[in-house]
């Protein structure tokens, strides 16, 4: 069963972590969660309220990481998932995060990113020449990073699949599963249907 790396940290968007995590399990992949340190993470929920100019943040679920970023050998993983939330603001400053994310792009492995995860890719030059979705407030970051912002629920650029935010999950994960099935398929045993 192919292993898929999910990088998360405190203040990762709750839904943007759990939805892909559970979809990967359903499809027969082995998702592994890496964080700056091996610990229980506290996620957040971003929501919209009437007469408020931006989103609000509330405490979400907590979930343990499987390993620290520094302990990850990216060669062991078939693909990468980058949820959004507030965590990308500090994850992008972590040298191991940058090392890992760059590996997946350099090796042309499947990558799914959503929402604010784009702000971690732009400074690394990984969006240059790419079409990508992100939370609309991140459009300037995408463009400053040399990418083309696309306001859509699932943007596929090669093996990279991006989306704006959690309301896009069905389209985003459907597109990513198609990429995974082609480039990192789950081997079915004789007893599987």
UniProtKB/TrEMBL annotation:
What highest taxon heads this organism's lineage? Bacteria
Picking any one GO molecular function of the record gives: peptidase activity
UniProt keyword list: Hydrolase, Protease
Q: Where is the DJ-1/PfpI domain?
A: 3-178
Which CDD domains does this entry report, sorted A to Z?
A: GATase1_PfpI_1
Cited Pfam families: DJ-1_PfpI (PF01965)
- Which one GO biological process term can you cite for this protein? proteolysis
In the record, the note on similarity to other proteins reads: Belongs to the peptidase C56 family.
- Protein name (record): DJ-1/PfpI family protein
The organism named in the record is: Streptomyces auratus AGR0001
Which taxonomic lineage is given here?
Answer: Bacteria, Bacillati, Actinomycetota, Actinomycetes, Kitasatosporales
